[in-house]
Design a protein that fits this description.
The chain has 341 residues and is an all-alpha fold. Helix content is 82%, strand content 0%. The chain is elongated, with a radius of gyration of 36 Å.
Length: 341
């Protein structure tokens, strides 16, 4: 048995050296190409629905959103990323906004938004249900009228004798406002007036969205900015503003992720995905994801050699290989074979 043990030691050493050579230099690229091709060949014989159940898919996606979506790494880097992006935007004058974003999809997006009449109608109808919004609309209309009256008063006061008449009219208006403040009846009228103002404002918005050249005006606004450097975007908000906006959006995403309804949406999406792709083989799904064997090999070779070389230098890789193979070579069955039993 001692001799068998010695032979096992030599075989184990040879096996470790062989495997280390498989992941060294140009040989590693050949091994990866071979093994990826072999895995994909196996994948051609396995249907996605046969190895992944709908329940397993739902659990995996839920884990991704729960663990990764709320991980400390993302929480720590959200603000850092926003600051880094702002710093880059602030200093970049090489690219224009038009270089970064094509005009055609922007035009299509705006056309779609302005053409969503059903959504616009629903939003405007719901606005009329808010007393506070009605008050804001009323003040907006009052402001427009007030500015119009003030502009015309300034012109009229230049005419001799009209200034006294304007003062008399203003005095009467102030007394009317005082009576309105003390009168419930007038207060009710004011409330109805606010609602009337909101409806008139809504109608004006409807007419503007449907009849006015809003889409063309929006595209003209885009074209004015498209030829400007990306750095010009910093004029719209400060670095602090961007950081706080990103943090707020992240907080909304994290808190929404924890809601039960979000889980229902995720499960529905998984069910749709499963229904569509459960009959695909594992290998056939790669093109659907925009990947092929060369892409997989390239990504492994991008990071693998550096990790493996580092593990080889400190002996960790050889130790791991030996640890996995040793139980086999020192098993009673192998030692018996080597001992001639």
């Amino acid at each position: 048995m001692t001799q068998a043990r010695q032979i096992a030691d030599r075989l184990l050493d040879a096996q470790v050296e062989f495997l280390l050579a498989e992941v060294t230099g140009e040989r590693f690229a050949e091994v990866i190409a071979r093994d990826v091709a072999a895995v994909l060949a196996v994948g051609e014989t396995i249907r996605f629905g046969d190895v992944v159940s709908l329940e397993q898919g739902e659990q995996t996606v839920a884990t991704v959103f729960d663990r990764i979506g709320g991980s400390p790494v993302i929480a720590d880097t959200v603000g850092i990323f926003s600051d880094a992006i702002y710093d880059h935007i602030a200093s970049n004058t090489e690219y224009t906004l038009g270089d970064v974003v094509d005009r055609e999809p922007v035009e299509a997006l705006l056309e779609k938004i302005f053409g969503m009449h059903q959504a616009q109608e629903r939003i405007l109808d719901r606005l009329t249900e808010s007393p506070l919004v009605a008050t804001v609309a009323s003040r907006f209309v009052d402001k427009l009228i007030g500015d119009f009256v003030q502009a015309n008063r300034e012109r009229a006061e230049k005419i001799p004798g009209v200034s006294s008449l304007m003062s008399l009219g203003q005095s009467a208006a102030n007394r009317a406002k005082k009576v309105a403040a003390d009168s419930t009846f007038v207060g009710d009228l004011a409330g109805k007036g606010a609602l009337f103002a909101l409806k008139r404002t809504n109608n004006a918005i409807r007419d503007m969205l449907r009849d006015a050249p809003v889409h063309s005006a929006a595209m003209e606004f885009w074209d004015l900015h498209a030829d400007e450097p990306v750095a010009g975007l910093r004029e719209y908000l400060t670095q602090k503003d961007l950081n706080e906006l990103v943090q707020i959006c992240y907080e909304i995403a994290v808190t929404t992720r924890e809601k039960e309804y979000f889980g229902l949406l995720v499960r529905e999406c998984v069910e749709v995905f499963y229904a569509r792709y459960s009959d695909h083989t594992l290998s056939a799904m790669l093109p659907e994801l925009g990947l092929d064997a060369d892409d997989i090999s390239a990504e492994i070779l991008r990071y693998g050699p550096a990790v493996i070389e580092s593990a080889k230098r400190n002996g960790v890789l050889a130790g791991l290989i030996r640890e996995r193979l040793e139980p086999f070579f020192y098993s009673d069955q192998v030692l018996g074979i080597l001992g001639g039993e």
